[in-house]
Amino acid sequence: MKKLFFTAILLGTIFYSNAQETTFGAKAGVDIATVKVKFGGTTATASETGYFAGGFANIGVSESFSVQPELLFVAITDFNFLSVPILGKYSVSEKFGVLAGPSLNYYLDATEDQFKLNLDLGATYEISEDFGINAKYSMGMGDVNISGIFIGTEYKF
């Protein structure tokens, strides 16, 4: 996991040095999550609603592609974690973009198995130059996973 995190930081640094444009911002919203825990052949599932807040950078690679690393605090009833999505963003039009990439999660309340990996897929829409809305689905992996729909707003500095 440390190698994966180091590789993501290294790639972000390389893209940053060659970036056409880099913007920073803050985002927040609601998370509608499903928690699944597998015990041998049995699976327990619960639905929870929480919130997320954090920041992001959008690092331009070309006219239509950028890398968007984020740092989010996610709070769900019994689970609090830090999420670091490293998303590729493809601009379909001037205001609409699609996102995809891995999300590295560190569970603050867990005593073991604190690091988890999710796969994120989503979209963004820019309402104005500074404000936008976004939605993504984050698919959890492993015996204990949290999958959810993140719906929020973002503000660019």
Quickly describe the structure.
The chain has 157 residues and is mostly beta strands. Helices cover 10% and strands 69% of the residues. It has one domain: Beta Barrel (Porin).
Characterise this structure.
The chain has one helix at residues 2-17; strands at 22-39, 42-60, 65-76, 79-91, 96-107, 115-126, 131-140, 144-156. It contains one helix and eight strands; from the N terminus they run H-E-E-E-E-E-E-E-E. It is 10% helix and 69% strand.
Order of helices and strands: HEEEEEEEE
DSSP helix fraction = 10-25%
CATH class: Mainly Beta
Give the second-level CATH assignment, the architecture.
Beta Barrel
Question: How many domains would you count in the coordinates?
Answer: 1
What's the arrangement of strands in the largest beta sheet? 1-2-3-4-5-6-7-8
Number of strands: 8
| Low-confidence runs | none
Key traits:
1 helix, 69% strand, Porin, eight-stranded antiparallel β-barrel, 157 residues, mainly beta, 10% helix
List the helices and strands and how they pair.
Layout: H1 2-17, E1 22-39, E2 42-60, E3 65-76, E4 79-91, E5 96-107, E6 115-126, E7 131-140, E8 144-156
